[in-house]
Amino acid sequence: MKSQRFSVSRRTLIKSLSASALLGGTMLSPLAALANVPPKAKNSIRVLSVEDPFYFAMRALIPEYEKQAGVKVELESLSYDALQARLAGAFLAKTSDADVITVDQMWLGQYLDNGWITPLNDMLARDKEIDLADFIPEALYSTNIWKGQIGTLPVAAYAQGVLYHKDILAAHGIKPPPENTRDDWTWDAYMNALQGLKGKTFNNKPLFPTVICGSQPSPIVHMFSQLSASFGANWFTSFPRAPWNFQPTMSGPVWEKAIDYYRQLYRLSPPESINYVWFDAGTRFAQGDIAMFYWWSPYFYLVKNSGYMTGKKSIVADHYGIGALPRAKDAPQRVSMGGWSLGLASTSDNQQGGFDFIKWATSKITQKKMALWPDLNYQFSDFARQSLYQDEELRKVYPYLPVQYNMMKQGDGKVSRPPVPGYSALENMFGMTLNQLLTNTDSAADALGRVEGMFESVLKGNMLIPYTKKDYNDTLDEAKALITRLAN
Question: H/E/C letters for each residue in 265-332?
């Protein structure tokens, strides 16, 4: 059985690396990524992580964990691609390169299907301290559950919301966004408010009504997919609800409407935003000449700094607010979710030690300490636990937590950016097309038709069309039932 699983996973890995080549060809080969990796020290836990905001607060608390657990933690930070290459290399070489890895939600299905990470169901069912029922079901559903298995636990869970400059809106008589989803707080109302600021000034300087991310492939897809999900657009005929049918549905009036809105948003943004990646949009807002934009919830605190994790107070630090996402008139609200989770590498020779670290890093106590770490102006509020949103001490530091919690409870990461095998290749094609549509005059219908055709080719190549494997009725209700079962 082991040799058979290894063979299948190797073929899948080759396909994954081919998709990575489409993204720019910069990813290390898996075995090359291990070339200069030193062996782990005895009585140690090796943790591989990206440097999203949670990393800095978690790193600061690791000495506390080392003293508590009596182990040495070897924490390494890697780029997005290098992290995947290291894990793949360890699996192919069958070596214990790492115990704990940070996992993007888009990798979860691939990692579990390949056997690269250890499913956590059995460990969670046996553990009496983890308080699984405290996790927000929508967060676990969106980022941690695949085919009935909890593969990871969230160390930083992201929703989306609206950031606005209080003084700019007040100076031009525009009401701030509400803190809760409302029938009258629609994308039309949002667009009307932005259009009303076109050509206006603030403090005798020109202002921009909004800002977008336009860089391809990932940043623009992350921002655009929130808009399209709100409008009710779906990527596939049937997913995640069974029976799975991955025939793409990337065209039609709803998609065209979303494209039209995003083009309008770009025309109201700084022209250079066509090249903006994730943090560029937040940095631009922090300069004080942007009225309002929507984005991932980490930016609810990141914009307090001038630059990424600098600790230097920004111009807008005392002048911005957080509001609920607008909704479409004729569709239920669906908030995009993302973030980072911790998984247990299947090649680890210390499974229990790795699980203990995951349990510590995602616990209520540790997450609160991360949030109250004062360096860099309090830069962590990406909670996946419900109890932390009710904590009065945390609400004083992060007053927007009730808004963020409301957005989390409407989260559906399985729909906004479906985490299917081959997602990276699909995102590459989609992001390239979206970026081009911002400046050209192509018909949205024609461009989306081309995207749909490209999607179909990739999905057939990955044997997802027609889908003949066992599927799973991957709904929020099923996720809640699984959480209750394991928690009890």
Answer: HHHCCCHHHHHCCHHHHHHHHCCCCECEEEEECCHHHHCCECCCCCCCECCCCCCEEEECCCECCCCC
Amino acid at 342: L
What is the predicted pLDDT for the residue at 40? 74
Please give the single-letter amino acid code of residue 108: L
Q: Provide the 10 A C-beta neighbour count for residue 56.
A: 17
The single residue listed with the structure tokens 């990813």 is 27
Distance CA 173, CA 321 (A): 16
- Residue 252, number of CB atoms within 10 A of its CB: 13
Q: For residue range 361-374, what is the model confidence (pLDDT) as tens digits?
A: 999 999 999 999 99
Helix (H) or strand (E) holding 220: helix 218-231
C-alpha span between 337 and 182 (Å, rounded) = 20
Distance CA 181, CA 145 (A): 26
In contact, 56 and 109? CB cutoff 8 Å = no
Looking at the predicted structure, is the pLDDT value of residue 14 above 60?
no
The CA distance from 20 to 423, in Å, is: 11
Asked if 40 and 46 touch (Cβ cutoff 8 Å), the reply is yes
pLDDT digits (tens, 9 = 90+) for 294-352: 999 999 999 999 988 888 999 999 999 999 999 999 889 999 999 999 999 999 999 99
Element (H, E) at 340: strand 338-344
- Domains in the chain: boundaries: 2-158+337-415+480-487, 160-323
Q: What is the pLDDT of residue 15?
A: 36
Please give the CATH architecture assigned to the domain spanning 160-323: 3-Layer(aba) Sandwich (3.40)
- Give Cα 481 distance to the centre of its chain: 24
Residue 356 has pLDDT above 60, yes or no: yes
Q: Which amino acid is at 200?
A: K
CA distance 163 to 403: 11
d(Cα 376, Cα 115) in Å, to the nearest integer? Answer: 38
Tell me, what's the pLDDT at 296?
Answer: 98
The fold for domain 2-158+337-415+480-487 equals: D-Maltodextrin-Binding Protein; domain 2 (3.40.190)
Q: How far is Cα of residue 385 from the mean position of the Cα atoms in its chain?
A: 16
| Percentage above 90 pLDDT, the chain | 82
461 vs 110: CA distance, rounded Å: 16
Contact present, 260 and 445 (Cβ < 8 Å)? no
pTM of the model: 0.91
pLDDT in tens, 111-165: 998 899 999 999 999 999 999 999 999 999 999 999 999 999 999 999 999 999 9
